[in-house]
Prior knowledge:
Mean pLDDT: 85
Strand content: under 5%
Radius of gyration: 28 Å
Largest sheet: 2 strands, antiparallel
CATH superfamily: Ferritin, core subunit, four-helix bundle
InterPro entries: Ferritin-like_SF, TAT_signal
Number of strands: 2
CATH class: Mainly Alpha
Low-confidence stretches: 1-19, 21-30
Helix content: 40-55%
Shape: globular
Strand order of the largest sheet: 1-2
Distance between the termini: 51 Å
Amino acid sequence: MKQTSTSSPISRRTMLRSSGALVATSAVLAACSSAKPSVARIGESPTTVKLEDLAVTDVVLLRTAMSMETMAAAMLTDSAVTGLASKDAAPVIAAFAADHISHLEDLRVLIAARNGSAYSETNTKLMQAYGQPALDLVANGKVEADVLALMHAVETLIAATYQYFVSLTVEPALRADLVRLGGRSSRRSAVSAQLINGGTGGFAPANDKDGVPLVATLPGAFGSLSAVQVALGPVNDTGTRATVLMDTPSLNSLIY
Length: 256
């Protein structure tokens, strides 16, 4: 329904008349004054720095993938995780961390073939945004189940990163390499989901008795590119726990 208002004293016609009067008044004032007014200024006006125009090349994507794999390995081998891991989960976590480290060599070869420089550090921005906060929550909560939850979130994140990068890659042959690397993380994500919610009943999406979604081995026909959500840490005063959002790299977190 179209909404109208009669309470306002200024109508559209009044605004047009007023603006016309202002234009006319401005013209008269300009004609009466031949000198340009001087505006007082305190200090110097800041200079603007033009942002560097950086291209998202295939090498940039590969370098960023290295930073994500390094971050995944660092998180899975952190004492906050290994110190809480059960005897059954510990060898799985160690094997997953070793897989991420082995991916670094694959990525290093792909980068060298394209005359690029390998990147051996973690993704600093994303580690600060959600990597370290997630580890701090695990350390503070000291809940054994958080170890598997974080592992599943990390593997899902890396799989989503490769899936996203495939859509950005220019070279067709490189897309196949990224699909293979992403497929490995996708399988690790499925394994970690089974450790949390095992059996055939855990394959498809489902909710518990309270309506809370359960971890699913196959959450959808296609991998999701939305932020990975994981609840970690101690229970707060409202009876809930902190939710960490882990998103794939964006323009400000790519390794140029």
